[in-house]
């Protein structure tokens, strides 16, 4: 397996150096920038396998950067570095597609463990995602993060696609919200099961002919959801 590339976006030079040295030491290729205005261009240009993204930066902040690159189709995992309680609240409240967050000051060992776990997860997801499945009038293409209904194509968000992937593993069987959280977000207490419900709502709008009476993504009462082919 080739070396994975990690982009560190952090304006504190000392911290950036520590992160770079540690990530390189365990075998990753590391790119870095301390400039919020430069970060989005670097992410979209270099396509790293994972981004460690500080929230408070000179120029654009981490939230703006993430929203921008997700909007432009960047799917690789992103870990936020956050310093203050308000930032953590904003991360929890805004669902803008971060995969994890780490609070400063943090232990480098813990951050490395999270990087490794997230890359393992996204690698497994990528290798299992070469499928395109057809269910009557519905085509689900997880590789391209897209669905087609009656010939009309809609793109899926990162979390929508990952939730659908979990449901499709066991068609017809109920999958609990806790398991979806665990498989998609990795078992942290963040975010809450409400995030699952919100993504299911938006998935239904894209997949179901009548989202109020779902045919494919059904609610399993008191449990979670099931995909019915
Ligand atoms: Ca900072």
Quick tags:
229 residues, alpha/beta, Rossmann fold, Arc Repressor Mutant, subunit A, 2 domains, five-stranded parallel β-sheet, four-stranded antiparallel β-sheet, 8 helices, 12 strands, binds calcium ion
Separation of termini? 35 Å
Give the topology string: H per helix, E per strand: EHEHEHEHEHEEEEHEHHEE
Strand order of the largest sheet: 2-1-3-4-5
The strand count comes to: 12
Strand-helix topology:
Elements: E1 5-9, H1 13-25, E2 29-33, H2 36-46, E3 50-54, H3 62-71, E4 78-82, H4 85-93, E5 100-103, H5 108-127, E6 132-135, E7 138-141, E8 146-149, E9 152-155, H6 158-169, E10 175-176, H7 177-185, H8 193-207, E11 217-220, E12 224-227
Parallel strand pairs: 1-2, 1-3, 3-4, 4-5
Antiparallel strand pairs: 6-7, 7-8, 8-9, 10-12, 11-12
Bound molecules: calcium ion (CA).
Calcium ion (CA) is lined by residues 11-12, 54, 56-57.
Descriptive account of the structure:
This protein folds into 2 domains: 5-123, Rossmann fold; 128-227, Winged helix-like DNA-binding domain superfamily/Winged helix DNA-binding domain (Arc Repressor Mutant, subunit A). Helices cover 43% and strands 22% of the residues. The chain contains 8 helices and 12 strands. The structure holds calcium ion. Calcium ion is lined by residues 11-12, 54, 56-57.
